[in-house]
């Protein structure tokens, strides 16, 4: 606990996202900063006035409470000097003093890691592309990283999970915070197939400033960042900027040149981002760096499209209307009944099996799992995607019914 408690103290004093490497060069360790006299801290010129105030007021007892909170919930605290703190993240300009983890963080330093980001109010085209790219990349052995928000983030996570891969969700709030209730089941699936990660202490609520702050972690954990859909003011462009500054690869998905919703993505391509049109575009650049990838097969994209029932990825998916708490699509070209029937016909694998067991009344996920003869984790993942596709509806207590 000794090292952890001083890292927690330093984080509380400096604030999340702060640069602390110069402090370590001056004081040696977080404990050295803690034990230094206030006059010495001030004379170092490395603290702001507010940080100096917090250095005098934050106690180790405050940090001990955080440690006990995390222990009670089974959350891991990973300080900067821990052996398993990711080197990828250590090497960015301002890494987090501490990471809080719910689940099992994959050993990202030895794995190909790809961040996939985009707007919350995603078009059907963007949702399908994100899902297919991440499904293909995860099948090929990559770890998918995103932010757990609605829209592209959710499609990215679910694509990785349904492919049997690993995924990491970097939160813009603390573990245990009441944020985005509509995506609670997806977060459970991510935890079961990877990890929820944040630098914010438990129960810290999301705020406007916390999301740009967490974006540097998304890019920092990644080898490359894929922007699927973004307007000129999208927060995804912040992640892309961080990626470029951190020396990561930046990818973008091409789309309409007359729709402002894609103007940010197209601008990235104009600025030199690499074009991505299939999963292999994301895997082939890393085959030499990560030899284990050569033992995995990258799914054929045309076959993936055929299995999904969408040979033309831009034709029908955008016709879906999303519920208010999930995604908003930009257009409707078919009636809801016709679109739903087409989506049901395109289901396969776990999605088809789970959908077949849904009824008109809400039932607990364990009941559905038993009838499907599938593990509850896979059923939850499938249900998350069915919700995205507006084929299932959830209620409190992990209950679902056919929509």
TrEMBL record:
<feature type="region of interest" description="Disordered">
    <location>
        <begin position="312"/>
        <end position="337"/>
    </location>
</feature>
<dbReference type="InterPro" id="IPR036388">
    <property type="entry name" value="WH-like_DNA-bd_sf"/>
</dbReference>
<feature type="compositionally biased region" description="Basic and acidic residues">
    <location>
        <begin position="321"/>
        <end position="337"/>
    </location>
</feature>
<feature type="domain" description="Smf/DprA SLOG">
    <location>
        <begin position="77"/>
        <end position="284"/>
    </location>
</feature>
<dbReference type="InterPro" id="IPR003488">
    <property type="entry name" value="DprA"/>
</dbReference>
<dbReference type="GO" id="GO:0009294">
    <property type="term" value="P:DNA-mediated transformation"/>
</dbReference>
<dbReference type="Pfam" id="PF02481">
    <property type="entry name" value="DNA_processg_A"/>
</dbReference>
<protein>
    <submittedName>
        <fullName>DNA-protecting protein DprA</fullName>
    </submittedName>
</protein>
<dbReference type="InterPro" id="IPR041614">
    <property type="entry name" value="DprA_WH"/>
</dbReference>
<dbReference type="Pfam" id="PF17782">
    <property type="entry name" value="WHD_DprA"/>
</dbReference>
<comment type="similarity">
    <text>Belongs to the DprA/Smf family.</text>
</comment>
<dbReference type="InterPro" id="IPR057666">
    <property type="entry name" value="DrpA_SLOG"/>
</dbReference>
<feature type="domain" description="DprA winged helix">
    <location>
        <begin position="341"/>
        <end position="397"/>
    </location>
</feature>
